Amino acid sequence: MLKENQSMDTSAPRDISNPTALTERNVLTDKGINDKKWTANQDKSIRSGRTLKQSTEISTMLWEAIAKGNEKFILPIASVCGADCVFCFNKYNPMDMDLASGFRDLDDIQQAIELLGGDIPIHLGGESNGVVRQEGEPLLHPKIFEIMGMIRKKFPHTLVHIMTNATQLTEKFILKLLPFSPIQFQISYHSNNQHNWCKILGIRAKKFLIAQNAFPLLQKYGILCQTTIVAMPNLVGFDDIEGTISYLRQYTPMINIYSPHYTDAAKDQPDPEDFRHRMSYDPIAMSEFLKKMRVKYDSDIDWPLDPLKPINLGGFHSNFMPASIMRNLMYAGWKHPLWLFSEAAWIRGAGKVVENAAPYFPNEHSTLCVKNTSYGGSITTAGLLMVDDYDKAIEKAFNEDFDLRHKIDCFVLPALPFNRFGQDLVGKNYSFLQDKYGINVSCALQYPDGDFTGETTSTHDQWRPMKAPPHKGNVDPTTTEYEIGDTPMATRKIA
Questions:
Q1: How far is the C-alpha of 172 from the C-alpha of 180, rounded, in Å?
Q2: Are 359 and 482 in contact (CB under 8 A)?
Q3: Given the DSSP bridges, would you call strands 440-445 and 366-370 parallel, antiparallel or unpaired?
Q4: How far apart are CA 299 and CA 187, in angstroms?
Q5: Which class does domain 323-456 fall in?
Q6: Number of H helices, E strands in the chain
Q7: How many CB atoms lie within 10 A of CB 92?
Q8: pTM, to two decimals
């Protein structure tokens, strides 16, 4: 998170007609997209990765929302944060990124509102993961009530989902928000112990009482909320985490668990070893602990990185069903795709899921685990992988297996690390891999979005086991059924 006193970016406006310059720093400007000129064709052009016909200046936040494809539902309004969290992504980011735009200009916000869909909940705030880097506390915006009024003028009945640490949610503040209902909150609440809460968030004690009391107040006024805990057992202990779950269970049906991680920036800490220890955890112990908590408190507790939770169980964080992707790869004529997975997906069995499905398709499939060397440390998620990380993993695999290099004709990457233009967090395009190796790149979504060029698993298509056909040639797995247990169509190499 960013400090409140950080200054606004003052660099030159971004020209959306030049996609090579779109990752450069930009100032918040009142020259936002003119909604009258934002035609259906232009919108289609953005979605396809092509450029607009005319030059248009937009702000950093608006650009990132459009480039990621979430301009229809996510509305970031500030990169300012009143906290100094010990686990903060931005604070310990070793990459050269500009993450400080301050409070978003009202004219620019109005332009962003014009792009919102309105048919799904509007998320006030955003996350740095997934190429949306402008992350802050939306309720700190000095024009927050004006912004809510602007939203309601355009979308009177759409649910507004607000991500916050709840330090602004006094009863007076909540009452001022009530006229803008329906509202739902996603509250980051990392400990119900005042001392530990202050230690984690870096906020003075009196703010804890506001955050703690926000839950009964929201319940009193009929406002729903979900919660997020960054569980840090090495810092506060499992008993503290249980106490927090016990408290939250009274007020919310859903608790999201995120785990702490550190980057290579940990080496710059006064005591690097102690810092790494505090930011570490035993994943198996965490999984077993949360399993007990679900039973004891009869709660819906979701931990996306749970190593004991198979990746293909279904649900928002576990919906990797590769059959539809495999089918499309087969139809496209790719004979030997190489699937590249993050460490987090690999640990949860993504490679095994592909291995189990591969025998029922006529092409050969290989898999590879990609380590995050850009951020380093304990970072394992796909959303923070860079093109350079994929490049290093591919080069190492090809050097170790010369035959594999000449077999692979397609790279299968998750779409999560890239925006609509195929750029990672630092602006490097995955086409680099295609140019370097002469191998096609195919992006596949691993979460319900459906708004990216490439195959999506949002429909949760299930593959049906099939045996080899009576003759060789192309096979349509959607129309031809076979029995389980017969000879697989093809062997597969699992790297």
A1: 14
A2: no
A3: unpaired
A4: 17
A5: alpha beta
A6: 17, 14
A7: 20
A8: 0.76
Rounded CA-CA distance 251/248 in Å is 5
**Measured CA distances, 449 to 351, 385, 429 (Å):** 22, 19, 21
What residues have CB less than 8 Å from 454, skipping those under 6 apart? 415, 442, 443, 444, 445
Burial bucket for residue 147 (CB in 10 Å: 0-12, 13-18, 19+): buried
DSSP SS3 for 45: helix
User: What pLDDT is stored for residue 22 in this prediction?
Assistant: 31
| Predicted local distance difference test score (pLDDT) of residue 317 | 55
- Tokens representing 213? 């009391």
Which helix (H) or strand (E) segment holds residue 324: the answer is helix 323-331
User: What is the residue extent of each domain of the chain?
Assistant: 14-302, 323-456
Distance CA 192, CA 211 (A): 10
Q: Encoding tokens for residue 110? A: 């109005």
Q: What is the mean pLDDT of each run of 10 residues along the chain (495 residues)?
A: 30 33 29 34 38 48 75 83 79 63 82 87 67 72 95 95 94 97 95 95 91 97 94 96 97 92 84 91 96 95 88 61 85 93 91 90 94 92 92 96 92 88 87 94 57 30 27 32 28 34
Report the alpha-carbon distance of residue 437 to residue 433 in Å, rounded. 6
Q: How far is CA 352 from the centre of its chain?
A: 23
Q: Which of 352, 328, 368, 330 is closest to 489 using CA atoms?
A: 330
Give me the amino acid identity at 27. Answer: V
The 3-state DSSP class for residue 105 equals: coil
Residue 183 in tokens? 């509202």
**What is the C-alpha separation between 346 and 311, in angstroms, rounded?**
9
Distance CA 173, CA 167 (A): 10
Contact assessment for residue 475 and residue 465, using Cβ atoms and an 8 Å cutoff: no
CA 179 to chain centre: 31
Token readout for 396 is: 């190492």
Distance CA 342, CA 192 (A): 33
Spatial separation of the C-alpha atoms in residues 448 and 452, rounded to whole Å: 11
**pLDDT at position 107:** 87
Question: What architecture is the 14-302 domain classified under in CATH?
Answer: Alpha-Beta Barrel (3.20)
The per-residue pLDDT for 277 is 93
Structure tokens at 98: 């500009």
Helix axes of 60-68 and 106-115: crossing angle, nearest 10 degrees: 20
Query: Using an 8 Å Cβ cutoff, are 22 and 421 in contact?
Result: yes
Give dist(CA 99, CA 109) in Å, integer: 18
